[in-house]
Fold this protein.
Amino acid sequence: MKKKWWQDAVVYEIYCKSFCDSNGDGIGDIQGVISKLPMLKELGVNCIWFTPIYTSPQVDNGYDVADYRNIDPDYGTLEDFKTLLDTAHKMGIRIIMDMVLNHSSDECFWFKESRKSKDNPYRNYYIWQPPKDGKEPNNWGNYFREGNGSAWEFDETTGEYYLHQYSIKMPDLNWEYEPLRREIYDMLNWWIDLGVDGFRLDIFTRFKKPEGFPDTKRVPNPTLDRNGFVVDPPMCTNVEGIHEILHELYTEVFGPRDCMTVGEGAGVSFDNAPAYVSQGREEIDMVYHFELGNRSKYHISPENFRKVQKNWATIFEKNGWAVQYLSNHDSARQVSCYGCDSEELRVPSAKLLATFLHTTPGTPFIYQGEEIGMVNVKYDTIDDYNCCYTRGDYFSMIKSGISPKDAIDTLAPKSRDNARTPYQWNDSVNAGFSTGKPWIKVNPKYTAINLENDLKSENSIFKHYQKLIQMRKDCPAIIDGDIEFILDNDEQIVAYLRRCLRQTLLVVANYSKEKASYTLPENLKGVKFNRLLTNYDNEEPSINGNRELLPYEAEVYEIVE
Ligand code: GLC
Ligand code: CA
C-alpha cells in the first residue's frame, strides 16, 4: 500500500474555545490559533484537528451546528479561517475539521423549516414520529438527561415528536432521506474546495437508527435515567445499514477528493473496526476507539495496555491503520487518569504516556495541553461546570437524593471540563489565555504548570514530545514496523520491540509508581543497544543484565548489532 500523508502525521487537537483568545472576550478564537501556529510548528506536529467552529448556539460547545458553511462569530469569520488555512499550509501543517453529521442544532435553517409543517420540504431532514398511545414513540433516553429524560421531544406545531439522542436542542438528522444526504455531500465538498485536508467524523456509528424504533430492553440506571427512559448506546450504534451510508459518503466525497477521514468510534472495537477502515471497504481511513482510554474506568494496567495494543496491531497487520491517543476534549486529563499528577511523578508519567503513544503503531493524536502535562481541575459548585454530561448527570443525581457534594465528588474526576479549561501559556493573569474573563475557569495550578515554565525546565515535557515527534521522522520502525511485546506477564514493566527491515527498536517502561526491575529475554542478551530517548536525566545504562527502572521510567533503544 502506498503510504498516505496521514500515516506519517502527528495530529494536534485544538479545542478552539480554550486555546488562545486574541480579543479579550474570554473565548479562544481563530486569530488566537494563528498567533500560536509557530508554537505548534516548534512542537513538530503537521496536522491540526479543529473541534467544531461553525455557527452555533453553543449548547454543546459547537457540536450543535446551526450553519454548516460558516464560522461562529465567537471564533472569527470565514476570512479568518481562510487565513488560518493559508498560513498553516505554508508552514506544512494540514487542517482537518470536525464534522457533526448525526445531528444539527435546532437553530439550523433545516430544522427551523422542518418543524413548520408535515409537508415542508425539509420535514424529512429529521426524524419525526407521531405519539404512541399519546406518549413518546419509545423508551429511549437522551445522553444529556435533559427534559423528562426521553430522546424524543414533542413539538406542538405539528403534534409529532423528533428524535434527539443528545440535547433537546440537537435533533438527529435523517440519513434515510436522499435530499439530506445530497445536501451534506455538497457541503463537505465545499469545505474541501476551500482547502481543508480532512474530517473528523463525530459519532459516525450512530447515523443509522434501528428500523421501527423498538423499545430498549435495558434496565434503567436508578440514579441517572429518569421516568423509565433509558440511555442505551448500543441501540443506535453500528446498526445494520451503517456501512452503506459510509460507503456512499466515501464514493460521493472522500474517495474522489482523496480526503482524509478519522471517525469517532463509539461502539467500535477491534473486531468490528476492519469493516469500517479496511482499505477495500472504501468507508473511512481511521477510527479512534475507547478500549484504552475508557471514560468510565480511567485506569490502564500493563496487562490491559498489552492486550489492547496487541488486538489492534493484529487486525491492522495487513490492512488498516490505527489511531493512538489517550485523551481528548471528551475526557479528563490523561496524566491525571493514566499517569500520576503528584508533584514528583507528573513529569515522568506524562512523558511515559507520550512515549507509549508515539512509539506504538498508528498515528498519534495529541490533545492540547497534554504536551505540558496539564492536569484535572476540581470546581466546588455545579455552576462552574459547563459540560452537558456533567450537568445532566448532576441534576439527575440530585433528583435521586444524592447530596451536591457527593455528586460533584463522583462527577469531577470524569468531567469533560477537565480537558476544557483554558490553555496554560504562562503564569500571568488567566494563564495568558485571555485578558478578559475566561468562559470557563482557569485551572488554579496554572501558576506552576504552564508552557513558559515547562520550556524553562530541564525536565520539559514539551521537549520530550519534540524528541518523540522527531524520532517518528528518523526511525522507520515507528511507522513501518510490527510490534512484539516481551516480558509479557510483568505487572509493572511494559516492553515491546518495533521491527522493520531496516531497524529494530526496544521500548521498555516501568508503568507503575514503584521501582521495578527486569531482565531481558535470552535472545536479547548480548545484543548491543543504543539509547535514543529517556524520560529521566541519567547516564545511559548497560541493559544487558538486570536493570532497575524508577517509577514511570521509560526508555527507547535501538538495536545496533
Ligand atoms: C461527540 C463529541 C462530543 C459531543 C457529542 C455530541 O462525542 O466528541 O464532544 O458532545 O459527540 O455531538
Ligand atoms: Ca476571543
About this structure: Residues 178-194 form the longest helix (17 residues). The two ends are 30 Å apart (CA to CA). Residues 60, 63, 100, 166, 202-203, 264, 329-330 surround alpha-D-glucopyranose (ligand 1) (CB under 6 Å).
